[in-house]
Write a structure and sequence with these properties.
Largest sheet: none
Radius of gyration: 17 Å
Number of strands: 0
Shape: globular
Oligomer: single chain
Bound molecules: zinc ion
């Protein structure tokens, strides 16, 4: 799996890419998109209880749809403005996580994601991984490898964020 840094950067890029220039700084939508981009890996919490569900249904189109509906419904109940836009932001942030995870090298079985749950139950993975797998131990070799993986993620994703920002905020003629 890519690191939380990668998911943060790509979630923020998704927010900038879909926001009208005047709304890029809309803090509530920014927080919703980035939080949704990070949320799928909270399935690690279940591992503490002995349930191995990482990269299961939480990493899917279905989970992204559920997140969008829950956020839109909560926003509507709280009478926040534009609940539909917030629901869309949650959906896109969540999907950005699934896309990044599809593009990384997976060394932890089961290999791949239940990306199309509940519409299909296959495990999917891009045939050409772009991101390195983040190790989950504090051994020196793993820490060194994770440092390289983080630098690679930042090198790939930061230009995308800058590009989205420049395209969204450039003056229109
Ligand atoms: Zn993940």
């Amino acid at each position: 799996m890519p690191s939380p840094v990668a998911h943060f950067l790509f979630g923020l890029t998704a927010h900038v890419a879909i926001s009208p220039a005047a709304d890029i700084g809309w803090r509530r939508r920014t927080v919703v998109t980035v939080a949704a981009a990070l949320a799928p890996d909270l399935d690690f919490v279940f591992k503490a209880f002995g349930v191995a569900v990482h990269q299961g249904a939480s990493h899917s189109v279905g989970a992204a749809l559920i997140a969008g509906v829950v956020v839109a419904g909560t926003a509507a109940a709280a009478r926040w403005p534009h609940p539909g836009a917030l629901g869309l932001a949650a959906f896109l942030g969540w999907i950005s996580h699934v896309i990044l995870d599809l593009l990384n090298l997976d060394t932890h079985p089961p290999i791949g994601l239940l990306a199309l749950w509940p519409f299909a139950d296959g495990h999917y993975k891009a045939p050409w991984p772009i991101f390195m797998d983040i190790g989950r131990t504090l051994e020196w070799l793993t820490v060194r490898r994770n440092t390289v993986a983080l630098a690679w993620e930042a090198a790939l994703l930061s230009p995308l964020l800058v590009l989205a920002w420049r395209l969204r905020t450039r003056p229109r003629r």
